[in-house]
Design a protein that fits this description.
Length: 301
């Protein structure tokens, strides 16, 4: 059976002298492992379109127990990231997360769109890395069915309070006064409790509840970004129940002092942006043109 779809290469490995086994995040079939014959020979068009971080229009043959790539035309390649280890390592982390959380043998258009948008902003350098990381982590979890309850305090149902706390092991909020009354009650040994600034809470809600086309369009000061990134990572790791090698590698890049967060001038919390930046991203399969060049009117899938 032939399948036509778009897909991003989220993992690749060599098989024999000239073949390649790739893991794809596809719009129609979710996460797919597929063989690309002769993908390493120089003249093959599949040579570039089956490399890591290449987004291609694909013709797949679905056999009884495996997929073959029959044809592949690159739509967008994110190879620029290879010149920047820190950004590359974050991109690889996003790919590993997608491979873990996106469904197999089921449509995964929103997962694909999320990762493509994140790679776009990583390449363009227009968003701080902790923001990209937190958005991808939280939204992937929400798409995969692990939606936290960020609407209100779990005890008194207030939407906002002077201080709100987040429980990353259970994906719930509690206001400070309810917490004072029931301190420690029901907590597991070692369970973290994370106080959130108002801006951070608004940012965290944005990562889960905002429309996909406005998802990356907000700002936080650096302290808020750090807070956001920490709680999203704790929620993700606890939900996944495992660590990720690519995250470890990204952390090593950070320790090596290779990481730079652009300083935000604003010192007050969250800023939503009215400009709908992310509509300009990538999203019109079939045209093959630079997604940024069409004036932001690309149809979203
Ligand atoms: Zn409360």
């Amino acid at each position: 059976m032939q399948i036509h779809t778009e897909g991003l290469v989220i993992r690749e490995s060599s098989v024999g002298e000239s073949d390649r086994l790739v893991t794809l995040l596809t719009r129609e079939e979710g996460v797919v492992r597929a063989f690309a014959r002769k993908a390493k020979t120089l003249r093959s068009r599949q040579a570039s379109s089956t490399q890591l971080l290449c987004y291609s229009r694909l013709t797949l043959y679905k056999g009884r127990d495996k997929y073959m790539i029959n044809d592949a035309h690159p739509i967008e390649v994110f190879f620029d990231l290879r010149g920047d280890l820190e950004r590359l390592s974050l991109a690889q982390y996003f790919c590993e997360l997608a491979g873990f959380f996106a469904p197999e043998a089921a449509p995964a258009g929103d997962f694909l769109r999320l990762i493509l948008n994140a790679l776009h902003f990583l390449t363009r350098r227009t968003r701080p890395l902790p923001l990209l990381k937190a958005v991808v982590e939280m939204r992937l979890l929400a798409l995969a069915g692990y939606m936290p309850n960020l609407v209100c305090c779990r005890e008194c149902a207030c939407y906002e309070a002077d201080r709100m706390l987040f429980f990353p092991w259970r994906g719930e909020l509690c206001c400070a006064s309810c917490w004072e009354n029931r301190r420690g009650e029901g907590l597991q040994p070692g369970e973290p409790v994370c106080p959130l600034g108002k801006g951070t809470l608004t940012g965290l809600r944005h990562t889960v509840y905002a429309d996909l086309d406005k998802l990356f369009a907000f700002r936080l000061p650096e302290a808020g970004l750090r807070e956001l990134e920490q709680v999203s990572e704790q929620y993700l790791l606890h939900t996944a129940g495992r660590g990720f090698q690519t995250l470890e590698f990204y952390r090593q890049m950070e320790l090596a002092g290779m990481r730079g967060v652009p300083a935000e001038r604003e010192n007050e919390g969250y800023h939503g942006e009215t400009e709908n930046v992310s509509r300009k991203v990538l999203e019109s399969p079939g045209t093959g043109q630079d997604p940024g060049a069409s004036g932001g009117e690309n149809r979203l899938p």
